[in-house]
Amino acid sequence: MSDVRLQFVVGKGGVGKSTITAALALASARRGLRTLVVEIGNPGGLARLFDVAGQCSSDPVPVRAGLSLLCVQGETALSEYLTLALPIKRLVRMVLSNRFYRVFVAAAPGLKELMTIGKIWFEAQKKGPDGRPLWERVIVDAGASGHSLQYLQMPAAAAETFRSGLVHRESLRVLSQLRDASTTCVHVVAIPEEMPITEAVGIVERLRSPLELPVGQLFVNRCRPTAPEGIDEAIAALETATLAPGDEAVRTGVVDTARRALGWERIQEAGIERLSAETRLAPVRIPLMVREEFGLAEVDSIATQLIAQVQR
Amino acid sequence: MSVARLLENHRVIVCVGSGGVGKTTVAASLALQGALAGKRAMVLTIDPARRLAQSLGLDTLRSGGERISAERLSAQGLETTGTLSAGMLDQKSAWDEFIARHSPSEQIRDTILQNEFYQHLSRSFAGSTEYMAIEELARVDESGQFDLIVLDTPPTGHALDFLEAPARLEDFFDRGLLSWLLLPSMSAGWSVWKTASRSVRFLFEKVEEATGVQALAQIASFFSAIEHLVDGITERGRKVRALLQGDSTAFVLVSGPDEQVLEEADELYAKMRALGMPLKGVVMNRVHPLPAGLDGPHGAGAVERVLDLVVARDVKVRQWLSHAVRDLCVQSAAEEVRREDFEANLPSDVLVTVIPEQRGDVHDIAQLANLGAYLKQSFAIQEPGGRA
Fold it and tell me: Which residues of chain B are within 8 Å of residue A257 when distances are taken between CB atoms?
């Protein structure tokens, strides 16, 4: 487990980013660290997982001992930001009721993403009454969006677009923190299939250049158990064995299932090998857990695995 | 009734769904089915197009679109009078072409293309892909070169941005907003506001301080050039919206049987209803049916008996096999419950097709054609012509 304070989790849609984010957050909280887990956009996977979908606001909601959840929405974040940047209340109200502002925020591409990153950064900087950081860990699910990297590239894009002034300075400040490997890391999640692996390699490359963000861990989610030696022979033997009458149909089913599972396992092993060769990172395997319902108990068992990994 | 039926009487098929469900594959497979039915079919995808290129056996995809050669199809035993083309959206050049098309003069076009704010807007800002995807769809449709266009929507997790894109585009280029922005003061660095009320002046001084004068001047010059394009773009927005809501367009929701994916699919469906976008088909991809022989009444006990007979002594192998069978049984049963719940909420006229998980990644034309066989079936989850 990475030990930096601000951790982002990125990856293509459908690979289980929320699950890994939640597991990292639970693991961190269980290790006694005051942890904030962040979901970007409308309350989604994380809010549902912790069963607080209706309660998300611009303030963190406690979900476990030592763990709070924050849902960050771009528009809300922007209003909040203006409240901070413009110290006069009447002025803030004027800006917010201004038609230009309302339309521009809803329509301008990029602004919401920028403000989202800004808000997360702001939360991460907050200090408690004792002067220590309010959160010892901030773990961010970087969006249900397939474009989670877009959030992370916003500070650089904004700093380039706005060449001077407050936005420029703030963007640079955020950017330098994001690029600081002692404060920030970006985890990448993949699943062990050909195209998702290729995409994960691409994400790691982009994080390294042009984004220049510190790469954290590479998680391969939903890994099947590695097939033992002798599996091919066993399946072949199964196929030709003499069985009790009536068991032939079952045998066909078992053989078919075994061959399919083995096929995916081979794709998995080849993929993980390629991933590790092309990224020069050691992928962390998270086991596939087939359950009737996938919920907190499953996420918690992943957290246990992550904690064990730290202690090894 | 199967989803492939939609190909008969629709010119545009828009595949929507959350990321990772196989939208690109399903889109390509639908287009291939169209081509095999004799149509001039086009599948349009958004970056990263590598996946589609891979599936079609092409090295790269070009933004103008590329025809898959008849030889490549017939090498797979696919003979047709139709054609299959594939194109990808290159966000930056799509914006440039969009501006060029709607600019009344070369001078205005160049002003916009050279504007720094525009360059960042079109290149690096999140969300602008969605605008351009719809624009590109309309453009290809108007070219009249295709009888069928299948759009693989951007891989935004919620895909909701995509559905809202036309409305957002119209907002962005709203004339009322523009006239407000076009006051000469914008480019003059707000000096004209000296005559305005003190509070307004103060507000703008603050905004200027926050963003930097240069940026504002750039933004102002962008909007003043854009003004000349507004009528065209607004008209365009109306046409695109009419195309999306029209009878010749069908939305197909691609989903998988996983919990989170189905929750997102529910959300997406609600949004589509609210926006008046007609959902006509659902493709439930990568479903895990139980293989014949394991769904009978003699289930678990018989599996153990068979395994005992062959691999009783090799504990690891036995465990692995038994684990694989158990996982599949649990997964299959759980998926069925979830799918039934989801489908119960769909109107009865929505066509539903189930595609079982394949034996590996789908990345060639033969495999796409094979998926097509499932798209032609409805509620059938056995292998086509298989052992069910």
Answer: 291, 294, 324-325, 328
